[in-house]
Amino acid sequence: MTGNSSGLDNATLALFQNADTSVVVSLIYAAVAVVNLLGNGLSMWLLLFRTSPKTPSIIFMINLTFTDLALGLALPFQIAYQLRGYDWGMGPGMCSSLTLVFYTNMYCSILTMTAIGIDRYLGIVKPMLFRETREKRSIAVISCFAMWGLVLSVLHPLMTTDLTFRVPELGITTCFDVLKWSMLPSMAAWAAFLFALVFVLFLFPFCVTTFCYVRVIGQLGKERTDKKRRATRLAFVVLLVFTLCFAPNNILLLAHAVLRLFYDKSLYMAYKLSLCLSCLNSCLDPFIYYFASKDFRQKLRQVLRLSNIHSLSSIDSVKLEHKESQYTAHCGYEGQERENSEV
């Protein structure tokens, strides 16, 4: 630590005065916001109004799209804050709301992608476990509420603390760039908070997701079918989001906290830049929908006019559904069960 009146280290102060970094980060956020709102706006319209029935995967995708759109709407405020030289002028309440949107997006996205992975696993590896479609939908809806409850309970300190911080030597008021020790009552509470973020909301879901997709690909065996190729691509995109978007931020958060607590050092600049990477997940999530849902793929191709196949007539559609039902019954699946396990 230094003798600065704010008590901040020189590395943090240097970041606040680095105009080039602010511009670069703002440009990244601007690009993410545009792609986010366009991609997820289209995805939400397709998922809500053009995709039926609402299978568990579709319910999870709607939940994920909602969190992504919330982030896209919050990014302009973050851009304005960056371009003003880290000077927040919209009050503590708005600062807490913006911060909460950032972190709920990250951790709800992680848990939702884990839920989609579990749904793929149950549909392909354990297809007889849940046979009733209505039961699966109810579980999906309850799971979404449980995700939000878990994430908001862990992030509760962010909602009850003034996250703004006055830096008198620079004449600015920051927003969630300086955490106050008073946010939590003790060192044990800080340890529990960091453990919940890094291990409960990131590492454990990452392990579960990896296990599910490895088993799905293994179950499909050596088949060279479109189904296996899509499953492999889905696994690749999901694991890419975890490793590119979520892992750096959570690893740096833990490392930065340990260094600050025990060695009086900082990784703040690296951690700040990793927040940009965490936002990229909202641009990659539509690819997850594309590979995870056959109905979403078909509707998207129709909207973008990428399909060379004319729409089936209603009679042909009925015949096709009847043939699929006969085939799935022969394989031990019900028609809806097959749709849920399609990737």
Automatic annotation (TrEMBL):
GO molecular function terms noted in the UniProt entry: thrombin-activated receptor activity
Keywords recorded for this protein, A-Z: Cell membrane, Disulfide bond, G-protein coupled receptor, Glycoprotein, Membrane, Receptor, Transducer, Transmembrane, Transmembrane helix
UniProt entry tagged with the keyword Disulfide bond: yes
Gene Ontology biological process terms, A to Z: blood coagulation; phospholipase C-activating G protein-coupled receptor signaling pathway; positive regulation of Rho protein signal transduction
Positions of disulphide bridges: 95-175
Domain (G-protein coupled receptors family 1 profile): residue spans on this chain: 39-289
Top-rank lineage group of the source organism: Eukaryota
InterPro entries found in the cross-reference section: GPCR_Rhodpsn, GPCR_Rhodpsn_7TM, Protea_act_rcpt
Membrane-crossing residue ranges in chain numbering: 23-48, 60-80, 100-118, 139-159, 187-214, 234-259, 271-292
Keyword Lipid biosynthesis on entry: no
Principal subcellular localization: membrane
Annotated compartments: Cell membrane
PROSITE patterns per the UniProt record, alphabetical: G_PROTEIN_RECEP_F1_1, G_PROTEIN_RECEP_F1_2
Secretion signal, residue range per the UniProt entry: none
SUPFAM superfamilies: Family A G protein-coupled receptor-like
Membrane topology listed for this record: Multi-pass membrane protein
UniProt-recorded name of the protein: P2Y purinoceptor 8
Native species: Betta splendens (Siamese fighting fish)
